[in-house]
Amino acid sequence: MAGYAIRRFLLFFPTILLVSIIVFTLLQLAPGDAADIIGQDASPAKVQAIREQLHLNDPIPVQYLRWVGSLLRGDLGKSLFSGRPVITDVLYRLPTTFELGIMSMVFTAVIGSTIGIISAAKPEGLADQVLRTFAVLGLSLPVFWIGAIVLVVPALKFGYSPPAYYEGLLSDPYTNLRILVPAAMVLALSGIGRISRLMRATMLDVMSQDYMRTARAKGLKETTVLFRHGLRNGLIPVVTLLGLEVPFLFGGSVIVEQIFHIPGMGNYLYDAINKRDIYVAMDMNMFIATIVLMSSLTVDLTYGLIDPRMRTR
Questions:
Q1: CA-based Rg of the chain, rounded to a whole angstrom?
Q2: Which one-letter DSSP state was computed for residue 229?
Q3: Do residues 140 and 200 share a domain?
Q4: In this predicted model, what pLDDT tens digit does every residue of 69-100 receive, in sequence order?
Q5: pTM listed for this prediction
Q6: Segment holding 312, helix H or strand E
Q7: Which of 144, 168, 248, 237 is nearest to 196 (CA)?
Q8: CATH number of the domain residue 239 falls in
């Protein structure tokens, strides 16, 4: 197990390097740059001067190596627009996105697993059909549409809408939760659909195994058989899928934070890409890539803890 963990960790570095090259190249291929936006009302000569000042005329490999060199020194650089250090903005916005992501992951795991277990307990029953329909809707409906409905319908029907301003959890917990709970639910809906469908299929397979029939033959209650003997084995593929939910959460947070006006990392990345603030966009992409890779490694190691057979391999 230790050797496997070391090999997986060593793969982290070439993977993150490849991701950085691809993302930097794609950002450079996008039309326009920060100078065009900063000097949108200026003369072409002024725009060219801004471009020279920001070193945007340098060859792409030179710009990439300059960014990598700063990153290796622990310097995330400064925003081309605000002039503030990127690390300052990241430290301000990171707790917000972290809270949103954790809340969404909890909703995904708890609600998705619960729906899957209830559906598997009485397959093809009324509850199973209703919950499966809910799961399919969660998978099918786009996040931006669900977010808009969550904002518009309560406002029109009940005169209620989440606060238009954000407050931190410690400064104003009530306002914070009024914003983040609906946002986290919107972000979690597609994950709930995936987890519930996988949990249902896995539990149906587990409950047909011989050891489950043996447990029932001993006279154990159905709830005991389901949760004590079936749930642990049913959780193995679900844990893997939960780890794969991390990229969806970060991708969805870009949209959800825009809809609910949440000043998080997704909002920061969206603004950076729109303004062609290339170094901010690169730093944010590398942060997200690092989190995704680390979550993948964590899932692989957790898999071994849940399933003893993996440790022997």
A1: 24
A2: I
A3: yes
A4: 888 888 887 887 777 888 888 888 888 988 99
A5: 0.78
A6: helix 308-312
A7: 237
A8: 1.10.3720.10
